[in-house]
Amino acid sequence: MRRAVALVGLFGIIGAGMSLALLPATGTVAAPKAERTYLIPAGDGYGVADCISSKSECGQIVADAWCESQGHRAATAYGLAKPEDFTGSTPRQASAPVAEQPLAITCGG
Predict the structure, then answer these.
(1) Using the 8-state DSSP alphabet, how is residue 73 labeled?
(2) pLDDT tens profile 47-102
(3) Are 59 and 52 in contact (CB under 8 A)?
(4) Which end of the chain has fewer beta carbons closer than 10 Å to its terminal beta carbon, N or C?
């Protein structure tokens, strides 16, 4: 009796595995996002400003990780943001100190 139950279980596992292997792929792949540039404050608290601003090897790793966390594939460019990209983008009080130059990460598809 035990052998019969074991064989039924074995054939059930094999049948389930084969049915999953033979099923067609659904093809529901998420469409890639359009290229986008993100501005990140240099003093964001994560300590990545040195890597990204100096264009060192760790900068590519950090930029790729940032893009992946935002739903993109990889970073196409990174570094210090150009002044025309961020000047006047947020209102600043007269008594507030001038912030450090933000970082820019451009993420592709």
Answers:
(1) S
(2) 788 888 877 789 999 999 999 999 999 999 999 888 888 776 555 544 444 457 88
(3) yes
(4) N
Q: Which of 36, 28, 109, 30 is nearest to 72 (CA)?
A: 109
90 Ramachandran zone, left/alpha/beta (phi>0; psi -120 to 50): beta
Contacts of residue 58, defined as CB under 8 A and 6 or more positions apart, other chains included, come to 51
What CA–CA distance (Å, rounded) separates 8 from 13?
A: 9
Tell me the pTM: 0.60
Across-strand partners of 107?
36, 75
Residue with tokens 């150009």: 82
Residue labelled with tokens 């501005």: 39
For 81, what's the count of Cα atoms within 13 Å in the CB-facing half-sphere? 21
Neighbours of 23 (CB within 10 A): 8
